[in-house]
Amino acid sequence: MENFEGFGMSDELKMIQATIRKFMQEEVLPNEIGLEHDSTEFPEDIQQEISKKARDAGLWCLGAPEEYGGGGLNEFGFCVVTEEMAQCRAGLYHPGYDVFGRYPPNIIYAGNEEQLQKYAVTTIRDGLKTFFAVTEPSGGSDPARAIQTKGRRDGDNWVLNGSKIFCTGAGEAEWGVVFVRTNPDKGRQGISCFIIEKNTPGFTPHVFEVMRSTTAYEIAIEDCVVPQSQMLGKEGEGLDLTLRLLTKNRFHYSAANIGVCVAALSQAAEHVKQRETFGKLLSERQAIQWMLADSEVEVRAARWLTWEGCWKHDRGEDYRIEASICKLYSGDVLWNVIDRCVQMFGGYGLAKEYPFERWLREARFRRIGEGPSEVHRMVISRGLIKGYIN
Ligand SMILES: Cc1cc2nc3c(=O)[nH]c(=O)nc-3n(C[C@H](O)[C@H](O)[C@H](O)COP(=O)(O)OP(=O)(O)OC[C@H]3O[C@@H](n4cnc5c(N)ncnc54)[C@H](O)[C@@H]3O)c2cc1C
Prior knowledge:
10 strands; four-stranded mixed sheet; binds flavin-adenine dinucleotide; 3 domains; Butyryl-Coa Dehydrogenase, subunit A, domain 1
């Protein structure tokens, strides 16, 4: 039998990981001090300055395809770097406060060359903000049935009417993608995807307050005229395309969950070494040690589930069930770990000067966004019942 050296990272990936870890320590974390508690980016001049350093260091958009200006890392590499970048207060939704670049919605890669150049390349190059609008007031877990926003063909244009809800960043974005029912008789195959640019008449986002830090919007879509050239993929393909491309997002989504757990646990370990109650350090109490130990075990399990899925993806194997497994499990681990850290910090765990209170709010949503936990359980059990898992 061949000598198996074990799964692991290439020397190149280890070097990139170490470079990002150092960059986070030297550039990102010092600038985080003094930021408003729920900030998602630095003040403009600092954002520009650190982003330039990240570009110069070759750390820009590492997970985007090389041909469109990204670093071309595979999914495993992207997860390794995301875990590092997520180790800051904004880490769950804005790893590294976005100083390492921003990514367009994945479905853009199903676009034609003109769309790719106009939207993917500029977004990666200039760090543009974008949005993704699938959820409607009628539901988000099952968009194939819930989408009611309609598109009517009018010559070379489409006229869109309806509404969307909970769309992150839609009011600040340069452009985004909107999913619309263009054929009411075809169910899932009757949904198409359109690119909509900001300030398009008939497209009006309004802030919709939620407890998470990033702003969500509801969007009124009223007689919004969009040219046929703004359709992504073929008519009726929109939902299938995006669900296929969305699945792999679950790996770096999970990696961000893991990164925040790592940051939280390291702060908790420092805290319990200094805090004394009843004449003893917290670190000497078994109740505290067990919280740390259970958390570490769960974080490592979540990391390996995520990496296993990435490896399958990168080998070209079917990874859908692994994507659901790591998304489901890492969301639960994040919630458990942050909750335990709050407990170890006592009242300070809920104080705004520490990051736990923010992470706790955001962690609650991690079990709903990108598919609620119940839907992932459904996918996993369906795989088991149909015999896809062995
Ligand atoms: C802060 C925030 C940001 C968001 N950002 C975006 C965005 O950028 N773009 C976008 O399109 N959407 C976004 N969403 C919407 C999000 O994706 C949806 O909230 C999510 O998909 C669930 O849809 P829903 O809220 O309509 O819940 P529903 O679909 O009504 O489901 C409600 C609950 O029912 C349960 N459930 C659902 N299906 C099943 C099942 N088969 N079996 C058992 N239980 C089930 C789950 O517990 C689920 O939480 C965001 C939401 C929030 C709160």
